Every structure is written in C-alpha cells, then in structure tokens.
Amino acid sequence: MPITYKINAPITADQFVSILRASTLGNRRPIDNTVCTVGMVKNSSLIVTAWDNSSLVGIARSLTDFHYACYLSDLAVH
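The structure corresponding to this sequence follows.
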C-alpha cells in the first residue's frame, strides 16, 4: 500500500507524541507535558502528515505566514 500524504489532517496529541517517540525527536521535545504537546499541534500553521493506511508514519510541523516565511519546527519519520 502506498504512503498517503495529508495537509492539516487532524491528529491527536497522542499520535504526535507517538511519532516523536518513534523518531529521535522524542528525546528533545516535551513529550511528557500534555498541555504543551496539545498546544504544539493545535497552534501549528501547517502540518503535513504521512500515513500507512491508518498509521501515522511521518510528520512535518511548521509555523508560517503563508506568504514568505516558513519555519519547520519538527520533521519526524517512523
């Protein structure tokens, strides 16, 4: 089955933490702080996700003005 990419598809904080744990980013992000991780997902401007069926296997989380600048905050792949 091919990987499916989605733009700003809803994900939960638990899914976000899971993909961070599966990559090396889990060691450098506040994955034990639920309030923070919920805010990280909720307040992102642009999230591109990669899915293997219903499993989240990748995420690129960014903050952007949608005109000139885009800051890639997290890039995690399982």
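The first strand starts at residue 4 and ends at 7.
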